[in-house]
Amino acid sequence: MESQVMTNPEDISKLYRELSLFPSLTRADVGPVITSQYGGKYSNIYTEWSQRDLERSENVKFCRQYIVFHDDKSVVYSGPSGNCTEIKGELLSKDSPSGDMKAVVRESNIKGEDKQFLEIWSKNIKVKSINLTALKKHGKVYEDDQFGCLVWSHSETHLLYVAERKRLKAQSFFQVWPSKHTHLQFKHEHNGEQFVFYEDWGETLVSKSSPVLCVLDIEGSNVSVLEGVPDNISPGQAFWAPSDTGVVFVGWWHEPFRLGLKYSPNRRSSLFYVDLTGGQCEQLSSGSSAVCSPKLSPDQCRIIYLECAVYGPHQQCSRLCMYDWYTKRTSVVVDVVKRPREDGFAGIYSSSLSPLCWSADSQRILVSCPQGSRKDLLLVETTTGSVTSLTSKSPGGSWSLLTIERDLMVVSWSSPNCPPSLRVGFLPLCGSSEEVDWVMLEESQTQPDIDWQILNFTPPPEQDNSQYPGLDFDALLLKPKDVKEGVKLPLIVTPHGGPHSVIVADWLLSSSVLCRMGFAILLVNYRGSIGYGQDSILSLPGNVGTQDVKDVQFAVESVLRGGAFDEQKVAVAGGSHGGFVACHLIGQYPEFYKACVARNPVINLASMIGSTDIPDWCMVEAGYNYSTDCLPDPAVWEQMLNMSPIKHVRQVKTPVLLTLGEDDKRVPPKQGIEYYRALKALQVPVRLLWYPGNNHSLSKVDAESDGFMNIALWMTQHLSL
Ligand SMILES: CSCC[C@H](NC=O)C(=O)N[C@@H](CO)C(=O)O
């Protein structure tokens, strides 16, 4: 049969290079309203973007500003105000509320040593540059999304941030000091502490152990570490309380030990308030749930935040909660949704609200989150809890809120055939059913050769889940637009990871390159994915390795029945839990798949539980409850082994490409090695790529690009293209 797939490595790398040029939006800030001398009002919009630089093997961050003239209801005129500028060394940055100043946490290598500075800029002058490293009040500043923050006080006199607690200098028992320094031996206080183990917060948070809240008094250039946070709590996501009387933060319990936090918003945590004068700490939420992303309303009266259950599936349908600062009452604004409603609303699935998410009247909240296979912008009325979608009638794809300020929304929109574009629009007035008039600030290049659609599947009756009956699921199908007469396309099947995650109709670099090469790609949101109601999520734990695997197989077979694809040229590729599903598929359907790629796959739940940063995940997905004091139990281990891909390895015939990250704390690379050895012993073709300095996502530019090329060539080779 004729093939139209690109097979030459040079052509493939050229195509990858071309499509990897499209940058993605990471941040936007709206500046204050300025009235021009002719009376027109405008605001500057500051945006940050990230782009792969294949020459430098790194992601580069750059900024671009735009000017938006408006009349508070609609955009009158807009355009860029200058070119892009690369940003280097900035860990965090934030304009002051008035827009008059800017704070930057910068890392700079001075004479071979990394130093951190806190800078204050005013107009065109850097008015302060405080060497935080030399001050030695704390360790490194946290720049991550989990704990990190850089927040101006309402008065613009203080800055709040999170850093690692200062560690006492530890030394060997045998440290010898020159005699004149003998008095500096600290009376042997820290001898023997040199190799003490510091727990960390797992994947992507490896050097982070004990965060502390830090405040800079700008006038006095004085940094202090806030007292009053309970010893058993790790604080983060902090901001100034109304009138700057204290600080509100999320505190995570870290006893008896820390568990991985990345993609795991289900860790016991609470909202806290620590008073600046007395150092008193008050718990503002129940303490029996997991909370995140608190945001203060513009009128400083309410805090909105997300809440979900502790343990259980890692990502679940969240509750949107509101704490009233003055009445101290908490209300649930939007509750967990079990099944999608008639109007399509399927619940809130998010572990972070955008930095600003309130409407100007402090009555409404904007949330961007998956709703099935699309990502929509949802508007929530906090008084009634009513939810409406601002984008469900707009072109399908993915709408991400970057910020909203004085009702001017800044969003990124993309779809599988269109890289991210930047748009702005005003929020319709309260109660109005008007559509948003989106104005494009930065267009992107649509890829006319890529066709995509969302397919819906109803599992056959024998695969229905008796506890959660009647659930269906979706898949995204990408295929080349022009297919020559008589050509049947090869198909790459991709189950996502998580398993409680989802693939939305977003711009996906590797899928778009594969599609432009001539492959069709089927991305399956099997039952258990987020965005389809809490019942779908709960239907999977205890059934991994069967329900997810059968859903994917059902989707593939249904698509093949259409006749457009070559059933002799089907491959499967997945990462993490997606790698678990991929390896199950080649074990359970040994004749079906002609090539398999697995990135940091879960191979054996029983052997992984002792080494992953999220042991609770192994128990929960195998169908058990988790507690921190549970001991290894042979029956549980047996069940975990039976549910794992390694159980089916003897049946495997498909050539497997394994891509492993040496520093993966989530699915340690020993999992992949376990599979590699089994396949070697069984003489199944296997190739292992080992990426030093990479973690679970294998997302460093050189690993990602090398991984892509190897995957593409593995597919062309083993599908005989
Ligand atoms: C013990 S590993 C669990 C699988 C992992 N879940 C969360 O980290 C996973 O599948 N991760 C996905 C992202 O959700 C991935 O693609 O890496």
Automatic annotation (TrEMBL):
<comment type="similarity">
    <text>Belongs to the peptidase S9C family.</text>
</comment>
<dbReference type="InterPro" id="IPR001375">
    <property type="entry name" value="Peptidase_S9_cat"/>
</dbReference>
<dbReference type="GO" id="GO:0005737">
    <property type="term" value="C:cytoplasm"/>
</dbReference>
<comment type="function">
    <text>This enzyme catalyzes the hydrolysis of the N-terminal peptide bond of an N-acetylated peptide to generate an N-acetylated amino acid and a peptide with a free N-terminus. It preferentially cleaves off Ac-Ala, Ac-Met and Ac-Ser. Also, involved in the degradation of oxidized and glycated proteins.</text>
</comment>
<dbReference type="GO" id="GO:0004252">
    <property type="term" value="F:serine-type endopeptidase activity"/>
</dbReference>
<dbReference type="InterPro" id="IPR045550">
    <property type="entry name" value="AARE_N"/>
</dbReference>
<comment type="subunit">
    <text>Homotetramer.</text>
</comment>
<dbReference type="InterPro" id="IPR011042">
    <property type="entry name" value="6-blade_b-propeller_TolB-like"/>
</dbReference>
<keyword id="KW-0963">Cytoplasm</keyword>
<dbReference type="GO" id="GO:0006508">
    <property type="term" value="P:proteolysis"/>
</dbReference>
<dbReference type="Pfam" id="PF00326">
    <property type="entry name" value="Peptidase_S9"/>
</dbReference>
<keyword id="KW-0378">Hydrolase</keyword>
<feature type="domain" description="Peptidase S9 prolyl oligopeptidase catalytic">
    <location>
        <begin position="512"/>
        <end position="719"/>
    </location>
</feature>
<keyword id="KW-0007">Acetylation</keyword>
<dbReference type="InterPro" id="IPR002471">
    <property type="entry name" value="Pept_S9_AS"/>
</dbReference>
<dbReference type="InterPro" id="IPR029058">
    <property type="entry name" value="AB_hydrolase_fold"/>
</dbReference>
<feature type="domain" description="Acylamino-acid-releasing enzyme N-terminal">
    <location>
        <begin position="12"/>
        <end position="433"/>
    </location>
</feature>
<dbReference type="Pfam" id="PF19283">
    <property type="entry name" value="APEH_N"/>
</dbReference>
<protein>
    <recommendedName>
        <fullName>Acylamino-acid-releasing enzyme</fullName>
        <ecNumber>3.4.19.1</ecNumber>
    </recommendedName>
</protein>
<dbReference type="GO" id="GO:0008242">
    <property type="term" value="F:omega peptidase activity"/>
</dbReference>
